Amino acid sequence: MLNEIFNTCESEMRASVNHMLKDFKTLRTGKVTTSVLDNIRIDYYGTMTALDQVGSILVADATTIIINAWEKNLLSAIESAISKANIGATPNNDGVQIKLFFPAMTVEQRQESAKQMKGMGENAKVVIRNDRKHANDKIKKLEKDKEITIDESKSAQDTIQKTTDKYISEIDSILKTKEAEILKV
Q: What is the pTM of this model?
């Protein structure tokens, strides 16, 4: 019974860290990645479709992304969707492909990205603390229902706290590394 609570708590905390890492991919760092286009959808014959499903997306260099549509008649729809998404680059449509030229990040932009990243980290920590609270509530209910002893309850809550501390320190470590990466010119 306690092992089930421990396993559930651990998997929820791991999911929180993974979600934070996924969110980080939407942040702009010193070099561009195709993930800045992940949330862009275009109307593909009546269906809203992800950009990577209608063409190939390549990173040409640290500041350029090239999109080759599989159907040339989609170029204007892709260009329009990118413009509406306001990702920090204006699409250049040459009739064959779309190029996105991202300007080099200024110090202020880097600091803003680092600030957003810290906010994402804080959100992940809050979720982890909520996971701890839910696990501890379940343990206290077992104690109240006399299914476990007071000592077992205290021991189980200590185990949950150690798991929480592990994931909080993992997030702090990830944040420190990511901040250095973002602020590096």
A: 0.73
